[in-house]
Amino acid sequence: MSVNIQTIKDIRNYLVKELEQLYPETEISSFTSIIIKTLFSFEKLHLRYNNELFIPAKESESIIEICNELKKGRPIQYILGETTFLDCIIKVDYSTLIPRQETEELVDLIIKENREINGRIVDIGTGSGCIAIALSKNLPGAEITGTDISEDALKTAENNARINNVKVNFIRDDIFNPQMEISRQASIIVSNPPYVRECEKNNMNRNVLDFEPPSALFVPDNDPLIYYRSILDFSKRFLLQEGKVYFEINESFGPEIADLMRSKGFNEVIIIKDINGKERIIKGKYHG
Length: 288
Hints:
Layout: H1 8-19, H2 25-40, H3 44-47, H4 57-71, H5 76-80, E1 82-85, E2 88-91, H6 101-113, E3 120-124, H7 130-138, E4 143-148, H8 151-163, E5 169-172, E6 186-191, E7 196-197, H9 206-209, E8 218-219, H10 226-238, E9 239-248, H11 254-263, E10 266-273, E11 279-286
Parallel strand pairs: 3-4, 3-6, 4-5, 6-9, 7-8
Antiparallel strand pairs: 1-2, 9-11, 10-11
């Protein structure tokens, strides 16, 4: 059966028809905006008034291919190979997590609270580099380092830094056996570590379970704070006095992580709710 996609309006109608049994209407609308914006470099405001805009046959073929991949449950960001994060373009692949709204909120908080920083920031478990890159772009006085155990993720992060024209020093390191030497102590350590318990898999969408790297998502049921403990031990060695840590967290473990931070010498510990009212960010200062 031939598919006739000639205008922006046709794209919308085609995706709704093909995907309405698989995805909610709001998600299809989001897919449509992301696809059009990525393929044609249009802004959302521009889209509203260009439904009759003619599109080339090559792009029509691409839209059909993208739709077929969406039917398989593949995340739109992996299909297109990129996403936006704050004001950055971030390339993503199967070695990296897809950046989320909650992580944008974490980075936005760091930017707002540290605009005058001229010290070092270390992003542990950098993945695609989205946190480090957005911080570098928005905090020009900071020296940014990103670490990850995955060589493939670091290659993606380095490419993203080039695309966004920022300077970030990416280093391969294992937080459970850190070898990194920092000649200059850090003012801030930030991390969005794995924090989803194995027992929570049943509550997750298949597009996450089937495609995103499990090593960047899951922690053992019997030790869900394993990454936070190691990162805090690392922070005690490399943070300046009065240095700050910022974490993204599992909403189920805010109080436990707060207690862990205090036991490691951090105070002024604050748990922050995200836009959906979930306890998703925690921060504190190191006092030794």
